[in-house]
Amino acid sequence: MDQSVKLEMRGITKAFVGVKALNQVNFETEKGEIHALMGENGAGKSTLMKILAGAIHRDEGTIFIDGVERHIQNPLDAIRLGISVIYQEFMLAPHLTVAENIFIDRISGKKAVINWKELKAKAKEQLVQLGFNDIDPGAKVASLSVAYQQVTEICKCLTRYTDILVLDEPTSVLTFSEIEKLFEILQRLKGKGVSVIYISHRLEEVLRIADRVTVLKDGANVDTLPNAGLTKDKLVTLMVGREFSQMFAGRHAKSGDVVLEVNHLKAGNMVKDVSFKVRAGEVVGFSGLVGAGRSETMRAIFGADPLASGEIIYMGEKTRFKDPRCAIQHGFGLLSEDRKKEGLLLFQSIRVNSTIASLQKVSRAGLLNHRKEKDFVSELLASLSTKYGSTEDDARSLSGGNQQKVAFAKWIFADCKCIVLDEPTRGVDVGAKLEIYKIINQLAEKGVAVIMISSEMPEIIGMCDRAYVMRQGLVAGELEKQEMTEEKLIKLAMGV
Ligand SMILES: Nc1ncnc2c1ncn2[C@@H]1O[C@H](COP(=O)(O)OP(=O)(O)OP(=O)(O)O)[C@@H](O)[C@H]1O
Ligand SMILES: [Mg+2]
Q1: Hey, whose CA ends up nearest to atom 27 of ligand 1?
Q2: Is 249 part of any domain?
Q3: How many CA atoms lie within 13 A of 492 on its CB side?
């Protein structure tokens, strides 16, 4: 066997009840290679990596590491072989601190007395090395933003022996400056001979960082190609089997009255003084770095977090939503960025998750019309090309991107006057992105005031009539559609 081949997975097959997730898949990476794994939502990417990590068992297939067949039965086997996986839906212990999470597999089990001070110092050192001086190793993970939770995960992997590092959509929660840091780290690891397997839906990133790309579709291999000569169009065609002419279609919406006006909002530690306005039929973007206070601003308005001071004028009246339920009753919706924690009830059915914000629509005189509900849900999910078994399956059986589609579906159902979409296309594939953009356009055309928080600049530029850029809890600037460029957005976000 070729000496440079680090990992070879051969003929991997895996079926879940009702779904064949993988069918005779082959996958191989070399030492010191960054290998991207791509494919539509539900293509089987995460499943393949979970098999490598020993998190689930394959039905068929063999795995070779350094040319030797290995039987990976459980996560510990994988860790011993130097395989580290950062999952899409990551698995930190929220009630433990950053330092405890980083060293968790080395503090549990052993009888030795733990030196907490040393542990914290080591964690700090690693965080600083990664360029994240502002993460406190003593902070509880639950108190961190999703991006910082992600950084904690990466840190955890880097402090133990790692030969094969798998990152399942690592950048979907990061913004550009953090992505740069991550890429530096990956290049460094590559230089040291680590094989990096990189799953992402972001074509630009993959083309930038990967040496080779393997594309899966419906649980089977499409192709494996070197980066040289690949283009975005070629990748999209491989993934979806058809071409897209245009990512952002035009919108025919007229902007109307101001639906939401916020003046000098202050909330928590992250929101210091925020003022903005959104009109009916407008799509207004919120750009900025992680930690700029975008989500926190919207959560305070929505009634999910306490609000210190400021004025909210909603539909012409001074308003304070005391809790999310009250906001929803008044037609104010919020699609959360953290679908696992807030967006979805993972142990409830897909049907329940889709209609939960709008039960009055599928019921009459307080009685739920199940037929009607089911039809509604199937139709809506089909329009987003969601891949699922039955509407009665638990939401947790869905692939990451398909979970996001269900979380999104919930708010299309609810008739909102104003809706906040916090990273609406996180983790969804190109095809579904297009569908989501279409639906956002339709919402605006119906006169809904849409607020879109996004860390993807092309999305802000392509979709928004106006954009606010936030920095350190303040609005750093406001740009009209015709003045938006990536450069301007970055400069405002970073304060240069
Ligand atoms: N625990 C499970 N039970 C039932 N079906 C599952 C389970 N895990 C995955 N599946 C199904 O297997 C298929 C492949 O899922 P997988 O998570 O590997 O997709 P993916 O390529 O990672 O997609 P995404 O880009 O959306 O994350 C999907 O149809 C999914 O619904
Ligand atoms: Mg996945």
Answers
A1: 400
A2: no
A3: 22
Taking only the tens place, the pLDDT of each residue in 151-173 is 888 888 888 888 999 999 877 76
Ligand 1 midpoint to CA 401 (Å): 9
Cα gap 468→460, rounded to integer Å: 10
Q: How many Å lie between the centroid of ligand 1 and the Cα of residue 422?
A: 23
Q: Please give the C-alpha separations between residue 272 and each of 44, 364, 480, 494, in angstroms, as whole numbers.
A: 43, 44, 23, 17
Is 386 among the domain residues?
yes
Asked if residues 226 and 211 have their Cβ atoms less than 8 Å apart, the reply is: yes
Pocket test for ligand 1, best of 200, 399, 406, 408 (most atoms within 8 A of CB): 399
Which atom of ligand 1 is least distant from the CA of 43?
A: 21
For residues 264 and 378, membership in a common domain is answered with: yes
**C-alpha to C-alpha distance for 278 and 359, rounded to whole angstroms:** 27
Cβ of 387 closer than 6 Å to ligand 1, yes or no, is yes
Which residues lie closer than 8 Å to 455 by C-beta, 6 or more apart?
Answer: 174, 175, 176, 287, 290, 423
Residue among 41, 47, 218 whose CB has most ligand 1 atoms within 8 A, to mutate: 47
Atom of ligand 1 nearest to the CA of 388: 31
For the CA of 215, the nearest ligand: 1
* 229 and 121 in a common domain: yes
With tokens 């055309």, the residue in question is 445
12 touches ligand 1 (CB under 6 Å): no
Measured from the alpha carbon of residue 387, the closest ligand is 1
Separation of alpha carbons 251 and 19, rounded Å = 37
Looking at the fold, whether 338 and 227 belong to one and the same domain comes out as no
Tell me, yes or no, whether 349 and 488 share the same domain. yes
372-375 long-range contacts, CB within 8 A, separation 24+: none
Q: What is the pTM of this model?
A: 0.73
**187 and 301 co-located in one domain:** no
pLDDT digits (tens, 9 = 90+) for 317-374: 999 999 988 998 899 999 887 766 666 777 788 888 777 766 555 555 555 567 777 8
